[in-house]
């Protein structure tokens, strides 16, 4: 049977939303890969399946990468899912909570529906929480040597793992070349998202992103949170930071104890039906 889908993008980071009520059975890894494939499916940076009933929040959400693997949290994915809930008139209040595998978040859809603010939770640099191999520590200003060159990085988690590489100049080419090496480095047992960070001034940073299970990505909300937190933790930036991604800008506010709020734009792309012909549901 056909299955309805909804596609949105946030700063060029695009996700497909499917309601589990429209599925006969849980999607397989192969089916998720097909849906996200740019030639055999619709094409996207990931799949959002929800809402589910949740004991912790107003709505439950599951998130999947294009390789079919489930992951913990996505800032842009949460913005998109929040816009979807509003568009489907499933929320009557501007503020509500979403339960993800990476923790509970609070969402607020702005009046016009074109921008969403997510209280993403607390960033931690603790090696055991991220996780990063080795003794327990804050993972700050450590070194990974690649092709004889030292790369200085910090690691963090905001419900999913991040590695922020600090450089004077960044580029998409660098992210594509070095990102996979960081993602799969043995010191990151769950693999990691990678951000290449260039500090512009006290309130602006630029990042290029290699996303775990996705590849080079135009934007990422959780990556923006992690990079901004690192820039603040190292003393390079203040508590209000605009993160300039290749696909657009994300506004970050850092409260006490590195509790992060992000605001980003969301655009409705299209909706339709997944034909049963592409695979058997």
Tell me the distance between the termini.
7 Å
Gyration radius from CA atoms, angstroms: 18 Å
**Sequence of secondary-structure elements:** EEHEEEHEEEEEEHEEEHEEEE
Q: How many extended strands?
A: 18
- Number of individual domains: 2
Provide the CATH architecture of the largest domain. Answer: Roll
What's the main sheet like?
Answer: 18 strands, mixed
CATH topological fold name of the largest domain: Diaminopimelate Epimerase, Chain A, domain 1
CATH superfamily of the largest domain: Diaminopimelate Epimerase, Chain A, domain 1
Average pLDDT taken over every residue:
96
What is the CATH level 1 assignment of the largest domain? Answer: Alpha Beta
Task: Bin the helical content.
Answer: 10-25%
Point out poorly predicted stretches: none
Q: Pairing-aware structural class of the strands and helices?
A: alpha+beta
How many DSSP H or I helices? 4
What form results from the Cα inertia axes? globular
Please describe what this structure looks like:
It is a single chain. The chain starts with a strand and ends in a 7-residue tail after the last strand. The protein has helices at residues 29-36, 75-87, 172-183, 221-233; strands spanning 3-10, 13-18, 47-52, 59-64, 70-71, 95-100, 103-109, 115-122, 142-146, 149-157, 161-166, 193-201, 204-211, 215-217, 240-245, 248-254, 259-265, 267-274. The chain folds into two domains: 3-114 and 266-278, Diaminopimelate Epimerase, Chain A, domain 1 (Roll), CATH 3.10.310; 122-258, Diaminopimelate Epimerase, Chain A, domain 1 (Roll), CATH 3.10.310.10. The chain is α+β, with helices and mostly antiparallel strands. It has four helices and 18 strands. It has an 18-stranded mixed sheet that branches. 16% of the residues lie in helices and 42% in strands.
